[in-house]
Specification:
About 85% of the residues lie in helices and about 0% in strands. It has helices at about 5-10, 15-45, 50, 65-100. Helix 1 (about 5-10) packs across helix 4 (about 65-100) and helix 2 packs antiparallel against helix 4 (about 65-100). The protein contains 4 helices and no strands.
């Protein structure tokens, strides 16, 4: 890619919007994920008695569904990103591509 074309893309308002929205959304999801993950780790470190408490009269403790919950949350937050990327970010990317080819 030549420099004038790269400069034109960088100056495109659609590119600026794409970059800003994608970055802000990515950081928001990353912070939420870090809170969930480190919250779980802190619960393991300081709430061992809660996680070791059996559920009902069975042998499974609260630690198993809590850990499974972190995994499920990771899949869900990834799905949220993919959905927004397919709906909004891909559209902006196509606009930037069309402008770059002019």
């Amino acid at each position: 890619m030549d420099t004038p074309q790269a400069d034109r893309i960088a100056a495109d308002p659609n590119y600026q919007m794409l970059k800003s929205k994608r970055s802000r959304f990515g950081w928001t999801l990353a912070i939420i994920m870090l809170i969930v993950y480190y919250g779980y780790v802190l619960l393991i470190a300081f709430g061992k008695e809660l996680l070791a408490t059996p559920i009902g009269s069975g042998v499974m403790t609260w630690g198993i569904p809590a850990g499974f919950g972190v995994i499920v949350f990771t899949v869900l937050i990834t799905a949220v990103y993919i959905q927004r990327a397919n709906r909004e970010f891909d559209e902006l990317t196509e606009k930037v591509k069309r402008e770059a080819l002019k």
